[in-house]
Specification:
Order of helices and strands: HHH
Structural class: mainly alpha
Number of helices: 3
Shape: elongated
Radius of gyration: 17 Å
Largest sheet: none
Mean pLDDT: 95
Low-confidence stretches: none
Helix content: over 70%
Strand content: under 5%
Number of strands: 0
Length: 89
């Protein structure tokens, strides 16, 4: 455990930041998971709507510096590839 006052403050700040960041990451994961489940069920129109929400959440996380833009791009690309594959099948 930290003894110095500034180190204790940093621990508090990190905990707050981690909690706030977790909300964005968790939300993005939830929308991605929902989209994949809808694709598996064959509900492609609903899946596309959910994918848009996933896009929005990932972009917001990038703007806030929570995840790297390449990471978000990769996730969005994989999601859209799965949607496109389902549309062709």
């Amino acid at each position: 455990m930290a003894n110095i006052k500034s180190a204790k403050k940093r621990i508090r700040q990190t905990a707050k930041r981690t909690e706030r960041n977790r909300q964005y990451i968790s939300g993005a994961r939830t929308y991605i998971k929902r989209t994949k489940n809808l694709i598996a069920e064959g509900k492609l129109d609903e899946a596309e709507a959910t994918a848009r929400k996933a896009y929005s959440t990932l972009d917001k996380a990038v703007r806030k510096g929570i995840i790297h833009r390449g990471n978000a791009s990769r996730r969005k690309g994989r999601l859209m590839a799965a949607l496109a594959e389902a549309r062709q099948a």
